[in-house]
Amino acid sequence: MSEHHHSHHKKDGSSLFKQRSLANIQRKKVIEKVLKITLIIIALLMALAVIFVYTIG
Asked: Where are the transmembrane segments (predicted)?
């Protein structure tokens, strides 16, 4: 019984590791996308601020 349990645990561990690494890759992609969007928004806001200052000035 204990031998069966051990082999089952081993299988679970490898699949869990695979799933975890896939999740990490996915998370990295999402974070990169969010960072890109954030940088674009900041750049746009800065450009708008400059235009705003120039039009008022």
From this structure: 34-56
Residue 1 three-state SS: coil
The residue range of the domain holding 34 is: 1-57
Amino acid occupying residue 13: G
Q: Which residue has the tokens 């069966």?
A: 4
CA dist list (Å): 49 to 4, 36, 39, 45, 52 = 66, 20, 15, 6, 5
Domain count, the chain: 1
Condensed to tens digits (0 to 9), the pLDDT of residues 3-49 reads: 555 555 566 778 888 999 999 999 999 999 999 999 999 999 999 99
